[in-house]
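[09:14] KT: can someone run the structure on this one? pasting the chain below
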Amino acid sequence: MRLLIAAALASVLVAGCGSGSSTPLPTTPTDTAVGTLTRTTPDLPLPAGPAAPRGETFAGIGCESMEVAEQHIHSGLIILLGGERLTIPANIGIEVDRQCLYWLHTHAPTGVLHVEEPDVARVFTLGEFFAIWGYALGPDSLLGLATRVYTFVDGESVTGEPGAIELHDGQTIILSDQATLPDPPPAVDFAEMS
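[09:31] RB: done, structure tokens below
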């Protein structure tokens, strides 16, 4: 039984929701400083934060042995710091050691956030995704940086608490430390869904 669960989880991790393949990540980081956060170049993902849950139910969000899909949506997330796009890592919310994946997770480093859970009435927020990733998100905090956070949903500026933004299918959320977006604004490639 455990072998069957492990095999099923491994196939989910490899396949994701679509038939697209994930891009291999470079193995040699180049450190750069952005504000007070030292990170790798935008081609490398930020790891899970220290507050990331490790397989236990978290804020009512389960970690299941298989994807459950009464509700199945895909939102896009882009983070811009100093005008540079950060890579949203693959496998946020996927706990290989515990053989489970959270209802909010990523499969590939594309910025596509997956919401797959058993209750079609539940609405998830960007703040819940960041909590699964292990980072706080607020109007003055992004990935450990004390910085003003400007929020855009589908290209439109949004005020208020960025963590309260509800995740909806096909939307693109951009978090930036700059008040304006580049022209043209960056986009999320939802091709992994086809």
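[09:33] KT: thanks! The longest strand covers residues 71-81.
[09:34] RB: yep, looked fine to me
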